[in-house]
Amino acid sequence: MSEETLRLVTIGRIIRRRGRLLTVLALVGALAGYGASLLFPPRYTTSASVLLPGAWQERELLTQAEIATSSVVVDRAAAALGWPGVGGGALRDRVSAETTDGNIIRISGTSDTPERAQQLSDQMVRQFVAFAARIAGEDAGPEASAGPEELRRLVVRTNRRITELADSAGDGASVESVQARTELAKLRTALQDAVRKVEQADSTADRAHMVVMGPAARPTGEAPPTRAQLVAGGALLFFLLGVVGHLAAARAGGRPRTEREVAAALGATAMGTVGVPVERAARRSGGSGAGSRLRRLLGLDVRWDAPAPRTFDDEAGLRTRYRRVCARLHGRAHGARRLLVVVPEGDELARRAAGRLAAEAGGDRSPSPSGADGPVLRVVGVGVSQPVVPDREADEAGALVVLSAGDRTAAELTGLAEACADAGHEVVGVVLAEPVLATRQARPAGRPGAEAPPALAVGETARGGVG
């Protein structure tokens, strides 16, 4: 299975087992988005288009778009609108211009009401067209402002003069003929310059004549982000933060889960995994306080990263796993009469597994293959924050650690192993306890002591299991 598949499975498990918490986070995010929408009033945006006739390069169109939102145009629009307390500086952030295909510049305006947005866009277009026409008139110069009619008259006179010279000039054999032909060439050059000026004047006139493509339409909906978008965005953001927070917590926790990982953290040998029958309701942590009720309501009383409990139909098969662990302990005891069973405090599954393991070891006194009886298990509960393990007795072969997989960090397991070493115990093995769901057909059978584990105690006077 690829890492991507594992990641998707993990996200699916988070959503399935933390659905209530994620739902609450999404509701909180929706409320936050609604509060943000109250801080930002609704905005309405509309636009009007201006057509620029003639041939325009892309760079020139971009220049015209910059002119459309320049401070001069915005200030003139603000003065024409005359809105109280709204000047050019306030409008500068509410207008924009962009170029589109076909030499069209679209000017957009945003305001707090549809009517004002429409008025702003229309006024910006009018002021831009007027300002662009003024710039075009100044750039044309006095010769272009004289109009194309005067240039046409110049062209007519020049053509007439050329015709006269051509008629009076000879074949070029005399000096007078050469001079006439030279004059004719100069006049033709002047004619070409005149025609060029006429074309430039016409092009300037065409460019100065911009076309407004209708008034701006009155907007019918709010500009994004709308209130609905803010509410939906807040809910989605908090939901994703909840999922990412679970993933980050799982990665930062670094809790060993497999037999090999737990055994490596304790520096011991994995003796196996045993099942502890639980009811579906019993999987949830107890407690009657307000905090416990809130945890149950949000689904925090069940770990999301723990694998789903397996079901079992045969009590005999469940006992077989305990007996196999006891058989392995026979070989690790080295003829000693006792073993210390260390259970982390607060680990209910491990406590029940250790009690049943002690009962199985005490009830089955069959000798090992070497001829010696198996050791008696003494169960003690040890705190994990500051672990203190009872000192080793003369007839004890070491310590057996029983705990739930993924319930403790690697640092906590290392501290537990060091506490065993300080007390003179060698950690001979590790047994993992996992919850299993009992079906209605399968109910614990056998001796009453099999599901009635002895009470845990700490100290030399405590004796768990069968003595």
What structural keywords apply?
2 domains; Rossmann fold; 14 helices; Polysaccharide biosynthesis protein; 467 residues; transmembrane helix; membrane; Bact_polysacc_biosynth/exp; 6-stranded parallel beta sheet; alpha/beta; 10 strands
Task: Explain what you see.
The chain is α/β, with parallel strands linked by helices. It has 2 domains: 41-224, Bacterial polysaccharide co-polymerase-like; 259-450, Rossmann fold. 52% of the residues lie in helices and 15% in strands. It is built from 14 helices and 10 strands. The strands form 2 sheets. Strands 5, 6, 7, 8, 9 and 10 form a 6-stranded parallel sheet that branches. Helix 14 (410-422) links the parallel strand 9 (396-404) and strand 10. Helix 6 packs antiparallel against helix 8. The radius of gyration is 46 Å and the shape is elongated.
Would you tell me the structural class of the helices and strands? alpha/beta
Separation of the first and last Cα atoms: 48 Å
CATH class type of the largest domain: Alpha Beta
The biggest sheet amounts to:
6 strands, parallel
| Gyration radius, rounded | 46 Å
Element-by-element helix/strand order: HHEHHHEEHHHEHHEHEHEHEEHE
Any idea what the shape is? elongated
Share in helix: 40-55%
At CATH level 2, the architecture of the largest domain is 3-Layer(aba) Sandwich
CATH topology of the largest domain: Rossmann fold
Average of per-residue pLDDT values: 79
Task: Tell me how many strands there are.
Answer: 10
What's the structural domain tally? 2
**Strand composition percent:** 15-25%
Low-confidence sequence ranges: 368-372, 442-467
Total helices: the number is 14
